[in-house]
Design brief:
By secondary structure, the chain is mainly α. Helix content is about 60%, strand content about 5%.
């Protein structure tokens, strides 16, 4: 992945705060308690400043708009695709005579519907990527810059470890 990608330094597990915690002795993160019993350590919590930033972002109108746009595309598309797939499977099992009907030579209805399944998968992928690019990506990127700026202003002098641009202006300068 190129280092000028704006999503390059986004970690799946958060900001890496859990890396600073010492590992608990014992198996599976458990430590011996009284009388030799095992008790699980609570999962690491993000620092309060980070939690406040992300809660603020989650409650923001921009975040709600990104989520709403995502849901308005994904839910109907998923339902339609699942219905199309189930219709193919149900028709193949309940109407084998229909599926065996030739369309052209040895090419039958089942083969045509199977190829249409592949074509609809590619079409749905293209539609999703296009929708994301036109309706969500710019707003999500703006939200990410705001989140990073808020987290940076709330954090206590954490050094940057990645090579992605530090600000939106730097990113736009790269383009």
């Amino acid at each position: 992945m190129p280092p000028d990608d704006p999503w390059y330094d986004a970690l799946a597990s958060g900001r890496g705060d859990h890396d600073a915690l010492p590992a608990a002795p014992g198996r599976n993160g458990s430590s011996p308690g009284r009388n030799g019993s095992s008790r699980r350590r609570p999962p690491p919590q993000p620092c309060d400043a980070d939690a406040a930033v992300y809660l603020t972002v989650q409650r923001s109108a921009a975040f709600q708009q990104v989520r709403s746009r995502y849901r308005r595309f994904v839910l109907p598309a998923s339902v339609a695709f699942l219905a199309w797939y189930l219709a193919y499977v149900v028709t193949a099992t309940t109407a084998p005579g229909l599926m065996a009907r030739p369309v052209a030579g040895v090419f039958n209805v089942a083969m045509a519907a199977g190829l249409a399944q592949f074509a609809s998968t590619f079409l749905l992928t293209w539609a999703y990527v296009r929708h994301a690019r036109l309706r969500r990506d710019r707003l999500a990127l703006e939200l990410r810059w705001e989140t990073q700026d808020m987290a940076r202003s709330h954090s206590t002098a954490r050094p940057r470890t990645k090579t992605a641009p530090a600000s939106r202006a730097a990113w736009e300068g790269v383009r």
